[in-house]
């Protein structure tokens, strides 16, 4: 009898699950914050999970990392100083550093072990980690933003885990208000906001809280993400002193090297499904 190995993430509250066929368990460790596991899958390359939740696979991470970075960066007129909260797998950092306008990219990840494990098992995601513009800090992102100087950043990207545990506060109004304070004028905030199908109320809440926090033009981008609950994901954007249609279209048209994002996707991804229209 063949012993097939499958990794399954169950979404109990939704009566659903995702399973990936596994060849081998490559690594498992308990960090000070979470259980980090690495698997070699049959069809999705290497897989990282944190506390049993899928974070990244080799095959489909480009969708999330591109859509959590490029729409926000092309919304900003001249993004020089970028802050990434979370993002320990370094895929979002890699996409941010594709932009030549970026002079510094600061990543504040709570758990250093996530980045060290990613450097070992996801070398392509970490290929820009030695870029002199990259700065790493391993501490709580909520405190970091609250202590940041007024107007210190141009773009803030919240590439976090789900709104539980140490990440819960990253979905709160006072955190968004601290981001608004830490952003210079014409600043842009983007935060991962989960699944339109399974977490529509959370998306509405993120939009409402960003508006309460002082952001002018708030909406969300929607994109496919096979390995996340429902295969459909989102990022919510807040603009400080920028219009909803702010977009460096010529620069986006000239931008190359992406597999999902392109200039046409900037608008297309902002079209909300009817059930999420304001
Ligand atoms: N794309 C993934 C998702 O949507 O689920 C997230 C990937 S990234 C690995 C998430 C990171 O957020 C984790 O490494 C976790 O340690 C980090 N994180 C959670 N709470 C944090 C906090 N308060 N400050 C900084 N990093 C945090």
- Determine Rg (CA atoms, Å): 18 Å
How many alpha or pi helices? 9
- Structural class by SSE content: alpha/beta
Mean pLDDT: 97
Q: What is the CA-CA span between the terminal residues?
A: 54 Å
Our estimate of the beta-strand percent is 25-35%
Number of strands: 12
> Low-confidence parts lasting 5 or more residues at pLDDT below 50?
none
Sheet with the most strands: spatial strand order: 8-7-6-9-10-12-11
What global shape is seen? globular
Q: Bound compounds, please?
A: S-adenosylmethionine
The helical percent reads: 25-40%
Can you summarize the main beta sheet?
A: 7 strands, mixed
- Helix and strand sequence: EEEEEHHEHEHEHEHEHEEHH
What attributes does this structure have?
single chain; 278 residues; seven-stranded mixed beta sheet; five-stranded antiparallel beta sheet; globular; binds S-adenosylmethionine
Write the SSE topology.
Layout: E1 5-11, E2 16-30, E3 35-41, E4 46-50, E5 53-57, H1 61-67, H2 70-75, E6 81-86, H3 91-96, E7 104-108, H4 112-121, E8 134-137, H5 141-147, E9 153-159, H6 173-182, E10 183-192, H7 200-212, E11 217-224, E12 232-239, H8 249-254, H9 263-268
Parallel strand pairs: 6-7, 6-9, 7-8, 9-10
Antiparallel strand pairs: 1-2, 2-3, 3-4, 4-5, 10-12, 11-12
Bound molecules: S-adenosylmethionine (SAM).
Give structural notes.
- By secondary structure, this protein is an alpha/beta fold.
- It contains nine helices and twelve strands.
- The longest helix is centred in the C-terminal third of the chain and has 13 residues.
- The N and C termini lie far apart (54 Å).
- S-adenosylmethionine binds next to strand 6 and helix 5.
